Amino acid sequence: MSEAQRTPVAGQDYPQTWSQFEDWFSGESDCLRYLERLRWREGFVCPRCACRDEPYRADRARLVCRACRFQCTVTSGTIFDKTRTPLKVWLAAAWYITSQKSGASALGLQRVLGLGSYQTAWTMLHRFRRAMVRPGREQLKGVVEVDQSYLAIRERRKSARSTGESQRTTKAVIVIAVEILEPKGFGRIRLRRIDEESAANVLPFVKEVVVPGSVIRTDGAPIYVPLGEIYGHERTIVRTVTPGSLAPAHVVLPGVHRVASLLKRWLLGTHQGAVKPDQLDHYLDEFVFRFNRRTSRSRGLLFYRLLEQAVVTAPITYDDVVVRKSRRKGQKSPQCEIVELNG
């Protein structure tokens, strides 16, 4: 079995407690060695020529390929690229994020790590959110419920030159897929924001996240009719008659409605509803990451999995996260809050 396929071992591949964390990562060199081990499980591979020879080490951070002389660092091309924040702080942030069962806010991260800037904590969280989606992850299978929820986000904008305030409400459509376990319970989930409720948006999502041949349960919306052809068993799709139906949606699709309820509680609780429409996708990624690992008894393993993805996820900057739109002179950035989520 290769190193990449080996199951991580507590106390060997990741720390089990905060005390052990502090023993493992006493300085930057310890952090660099750990990240290098995660990034190149089978040994260094040159990003330019793919040479696998042991590199020259120009200093504790820079690696030089023996074949093409290409220079890189352990953190280049990762979410840690060009950071001025010490790696020990980054790893402590990863530990804090994964040890908080209900999630972490930027304000909480700033307070716990003693960061001087809220912006730094906020950007760190968003970089980690980018690493919460594993490429090539397994599709859902078995019995899968699919439905949409509607998230209303109110943007309030106040001019710096007046006391007037304008507001606009944006409705985000979120499609939810939930594995249903037997005899009861829910498995993994997938979430995605779509532009509008249509077959053209929903069907590609289902095909991407659900194994062919699975049983798809939906309500009676016409957009789901083609699923019967795609999955080969139209009769497996549950349809309810909307007018006068005796089966409420939350009874027909309990998994979807449970997940929608938890999502709303999480957004309003951990993040105080302060989620901007153009950043919603990455909050959904974090919710999926946490929900699908809700039964894990090892916070250390979650820490390991997050960093495992962090070293193969492309870097982003604060400006990448903040979608800057042209504003009139004197106009402030809008304040956003979630005001409603309906199943």
Describe the protein's architecture and organization.
34% of the residues lie in helices and 17% in strands. It is built from twelve helices and eight strands. The strands form two sheets. Strands 4, 5, 6, 7 and 8 form a five-stranded mixed sheet that branches. It has a three-stranded antiparallel sheet with strand order 1-2-3, with no helix packed on it. The longest helix has 16 residues, at 254-269. The protein starts with 17 loop residues before the first helix and ends with a strand. Residues 139-292 form the ISXO2-like transposase domain. InterPro entries: Tnp_ISXO2-like (IPR024445), Transposase_Zn_ribbon (IPR024442). This is IS1595 family transposase ISPho1.
